[in-house]
Sequence to fold (596 residues):
Amino acid sequence: MVARNPRYGDVVRSSFARQGLMAHLGAELTQVEPGSVEVRVRSRPELTQQHGFLHAGVTTSVVDSACGCAALSLMPAGSEVVSVEFKINLLAPARGHELVARGRVLRAGRTITVCQGDAYALTDEGEVHCATMTATMFRVEAPEPDGAA
Amino acid sequence: MVARNPRYGDVVRSSFARQGLMAHLGAELTQVEPGSVEVRVRSRPELTQQHGFLHAGVTTSVVDSACGCAALSLMPAGSEVVSVEFKINLLAPARGHELVARGRVLRAGRTITVCQGDAYALTDEGEVHCATMTATMFRVEAPEPDGAA
Amino acid sequence: MVARNPRYGDVVRSSFARQGLMAHLGAELTQVEPGSVEVRVRSRPELTQQHGFLHAGVTTSVVDSACGCAALSLMPAGSEVVSVEFKINLLAPARGHELVARGRVLRAGRTITVCQGDAYALTDEGEVHCATMTATMFRVEAPEPDGAA
Amino acid sequence: MVARNPRYGDVVRSSFARQGLMAHLGAELTQVEPGSVEVRVRSRPELTQQHGFLHAGVTTSVVDSACGCAALSLMPAGSEVVSVEFKINLLAPARGHELVARGRVLRAGRTITVCQGDAYALTDEGEVHCATMTATMFRVEAPEPDGAA
Fold:
């Protein structure tokens, strides 16, 4: 896949950095390629569900962000991205010390981009595939920065 | 809908209280009826996406928890609930000062319960329907408490 | 909900009539209101799955068509509709002599319309809610008819 | 992946053959491996949507059947499979002379199996990836055959 915006990396990192939730969860953007993004989050008690594993909402949040960033990486300059919908299947409990979310673009259209995302729990026994998502992302024209008009 | 466990309210409140993420997001369980649960979360900068609205991951987390609790409220004593999958459509930006998530059971089976969840943003102009979810929940036998065997 | 195109009924009926699959399944468009459409199909051996009930694919096909038609009914003249995605939960076996699918618009945007669809099996004991769908529909400009340019 | 039932091929072929809808659509089971199944259907006017491409309902029906058969291929003897839910993203119009649906198991549990399915349109220019599905399948004990009790 080829990025149309040569500054796609800066655009994605800036968008991720403005997501207050990612900082609140302690999630980090660890890889950005055209059409492919990785986000990681470390397990801690504030992120759990009732059995002590990572809450499905945490898994979903970071996979959604990875998918949105993957979509954004292929969009022309001046674009922003919003989630239209996503569906996630939780394949295994998200136990372990860290969760790795990977989002990649399946199809990039003019307004709609479809992504697949997967989450892997890093345990002492290796990576466990714990969730898979498909997401529909929508491109919106970014508002002009102040003074640009 | 009729609860099979007369202590369903305690079971649901205890399950919600053990979800570390709910406290971390500042979400509160505000209503529990058989097959129907309400969760609320106030907007704040730690919960936003890149445009300053509530992150889709927050909306999803609280609607998922509302659905899981609604499913649990109809299960027999000694049950726990895990999410198998869910899908959410984001209908409008989650702006406003508070988000109300409502989960209700569509069909309660022996092992599988299907729920519908909706999220409403409370704004100065009134409630805005900002997301709708369908979720599949799975019943698991709770492990015996310590010493019970 | 208010139709922007006063000829919405003709537009929907014409779109449905051009869907070869609907005739092949024996499905009929039985109601068209702005933002709300009903489709019915009678049970017969050609439409079954391996246990003799209506195949999930039939249920999905008619609910998808009902949702697409509901979305189309609110679009301006000169629009066509395509399905971006849908998700269906199968709540109960589709037994009985007839299936009624109802689609309605949850949110109509300029390019994206989100619909909810439900299917009910008509049995000797009454209506059984057997499936629920959420669908994302996309508006495309219809090509000009021959000679119009 | 390893089949627990050495007769998995017969079980899958028999289940597919009893699906009246597959014959009505002209779909054929073209490959059965443990945890992986292929179904094909040729394009014809009876299977179209309003623009002359294969109807999303046809694509969904054959991908759902491929996923259900893939799930069944890994189940122990005496099992049957029903669809709990599925979600499909339609990536491109299903044009071309034939559609190939491939279903494979992502995770096989004791009662729940999660599958991924994909559909490819065969055109003169090659394969086009036109849809992707995730599906949740449920295992039920098959009723004893007549006289077995």
